[in-house]
User: Fold this.
Amino acid sequence: MKELLNIQSELKAPKSQYNSFGKYKYRNCEDVLEALKPLLKKNKCTLYISDNILEVGGLVFVEAIATIQNEKGQDVSVSAQAGINPNKKGMDIAQSFGSSSSYARKYALNGLFLIDDTKDADTEAPQPTKRKFTATDAQAEKLKGTEGKDLKAKYIITEAQIKRYNELK
Assistant:
């Protein structure tokens, strides 16, 4: 289906949400849908998303199915699943089902439209943070034989501090 290929290659769904606790950006299902709407219109396609609540071996989960259909009636579908925890602390049962539905829908859309989430919070390694350069750091770095110019990669350090560091014996 050429329309799907066109949408997959044009789609840009930036991570516009921010989790201040985990300090990462992410996209949710609504972000993906907003980015898709103009492309679906341009390519004369319709997107359907449906949910099924299933139980296998005592595990309740939601299966989301995302289907794109062109003007000729050709369609492609992708599904994704997410477990439901009706006893999740801080959520009533409707919120628990809704949260799992949103999660499954997002991943069904990711699969259908080839959205890469490899840099999401659950796969991205945290970046090391720099801290202010201290006298203790100076002693430790001198013992290691670190050059003054190399300290900028590891610390928040002023030119004056680098100069004083280089003067240490």
Q: What stands out?
A: The radius of gyration is 25 Å. The helical segments are 2-10, 29-42, 93-113, 135-144, 159-167. Residues 22 and 130 are 18 Å apart (CA to CA). The first helix runs from residue 2 to 10.
